[in-house]
UniProtKB/TrEMBL annotation:
PANTHER family per UniProt: FLAVIN-BINDING MONOOXYGENASE-LIKE PROTEIN (AFU_ORTHOLOGUE AFUA_4G09220), FLAVIN-CONTAINING MONOOXYGENASE
Keyword Oxidoreductase recorded: yes
UniProt GO molecular function: flavin adenine dinucleotide binding; monooxygenase activity
Designated name of the protein: FAD-dependent oxidoreductase
Amino acid sequence: MTSANKTPHHSVIIIGGGQAGLSASYYLQQQGVDHLLLEKSALTNAWRTQRWDAFCLVTPNWQCQLPGYPYAGDDPHGFMKKDEIIAYLDGFIEMVNAPCRTGVTVQQVKPRAQGGYLVRTSDGEFTADQVIVASGGYQVPIIPRLAERVPTEIKQIHSEQYRNADLLPEGNVLVVGSGQSGAQIAEDLHLAGRKVFLAVGDAPRCARFYRGRDVVDWLDEMKYYDISVDKHPLREGVRDNTNHYLTGRDGGRDIDLRRFATEGMELFGLLTGLEGSNLQFAPDLASKLEAADAVYERINRSIDNYIEENAIDAPSGKHYQPVWKPEAEREQLDLRTAGITSIIWCIGFAPDFRYVEASVFDGHGHPVHHRGVTAQPGLYFLGLPWLHTWGSGRFSGIARDAEYLAEQIVSTARLAKAG
């Protein structure tokens, strides 16, 4: 760092203090690289403030493989609950001991004419030779403009604000979206005895257990989690996929929306409009349920093939048999007549990298990169879904990505010094 009369300078500035930023710090420290981590809130803040009370991991605990800090508990095939996850992260924070400043919002990252970057923050300016953007791709909660026309007496929140059923007004609840958060929040409300209306989206589903093991265990053994973006059949398109819905709750189980329907949950297709208090839905519920089941079956069949090809002794498998089918597609629902007093928007987040002034983004605001390395020298991204593999945005794969970027940073610094 320079003298007190000059702009503080670091070899690397890391933006974001989640598991990605902390993992980057871990490897930069191993390489002896001077750096500073900037976090606008508290370290690992999203895990503390954007999860509902009954939240738990959907991947088994053994997949918690943060660098230098693998899961060491006595339940590797269980699923940590919210408090246990926070305790795990607290231990990681203490172990890494990153050079960091919290409560500092980054307002601008801009390449300098003389090389390196200017980083403007709520607490002054910094300069850096290289920058890692590790703030994630889930910054802006998505709420459709349609929400502006919902009757004012109905409470509306985004999934990141949901905590439990008791904090919602009495009455029925509409959950919009059936990805991981939507499906699990709908289940949480359903188990709490709330009448739930669910607008189903395009998310696929996956079995929790199949042929005697957690499906995640099978897929890991099959090396699925080692497939890189450039080897995946969808290539970069896999980054647009919605996560499969299942749960680790109560030891782990499938989430079957059809079963919920037999128990009183009311399912609809894609929400498309609102006139007064009357919601409008696409007539595609049956096709969306069938598509989700098809993915479920396809994953199970891939496990069957693996077992057969490798002569593995495992319990027999079976095909899924739908327990419910919609008799007719319902395309309208009156909010007031249905007694709906709350809406929870579970349709995801959008990235917000507007503070990064570099020509490295596509038309949707996502950075263009290869394994986090952009075309702008010295600018990197870390912690994004499918940055390199399935585990890139998760506890299971962030170490591999962070180590790779640390090596790239050291190599770039050596080339600059030699030049």
